[in-house]
Amino acid sequence: MGEGVSHSNPDASRINELASLIIHHSHLYYNEANPEISDAEFDELWDELKRLDPNHPQLERVGSDVPPGSEKVNHMFPMRSLDKAISDEEIKHFVAETTAHGRCFIAQPKLDGSALSLEYRRGKLVRAATRGSGERGEDVTANARRIPNIPFELEWAGDCHIRGEVVMPLEIFNEKYAEIAPNPRNLAAGALRQKHIEKGKAKAEHLEFYAYDVRFVGPKSRHPDSPEPSFMESDSQATKWLIEQGINVAGDTVVEGENDEDTSNALIALTR
Known about the structure:
It is a single chain. The protein is α+β, with helices and mostly antiparallel strands. Helix content is 32%, strand content 17%. The protein has two domains: 12-61, Helix hairpin bin (Helix Hairpins, Orthogonal Bundle); 69-272, DNA ligase/mRNA capping enzyme (D-amino Acid Aminotransferase, Chain A, domain 1). The protein has a four-stranded antiparallel sheet with strand order 4-3-6-7. It has a two-stranded antiparallel sheet with strand order 1-5. The protein has a two-stranded antiparallel sheet with strand order 2-8.
């Protein structure tokens, strides 16, 4: 259940109800791959809670707690959620205020799949974990190793965590699974987390991984033989590095502008 709210707040009952609904639907979405409501309906619950109680603890959580019985993984780098901007005005606010007049952005599509963190130790894949609650996920290394475009070894022999999204391509879904599943997102999540390969509805071999971030392990935690990572001052440099390692990325479109208006309009144009 969601954390309690003081009954001196006239909206306390609705706030508690919203928090409980978000917990319930997050569990169905992230752990069961069987959502009862659409993403838009979930966003409405989230936005209403944010409006009524902007500091509610549930808004700081991502995903859902790992189900009992699964092997849990504490994320060295928490997998946080991102704020969304839907309208043109929200995008303009993002450029002018949130990023303090940013002039260069890397644009990537929002993939509808299952978030995954790949841990490489001395360049070799040692573990893969779902997002889970954002702080703790589920170990899915065995299934991740069966995804064709996830390399077992990087070109760089160091320690890092690569995060991205696991998806099922629409053409594969339509060809092989459209008659047995409502959508490819559910199948991707189920195939990634299945305990028994022979009993799963979908095969991990039919999934693909697309990265959007890399985090390098600090000197106190990395292997003594792990080399010092290259300094990267921008997301575009990180994306280039991922490509050099043989990792497919979600996108690498660079958007630039001379002022807030030009930059905002360039970003807005990509959403059309």
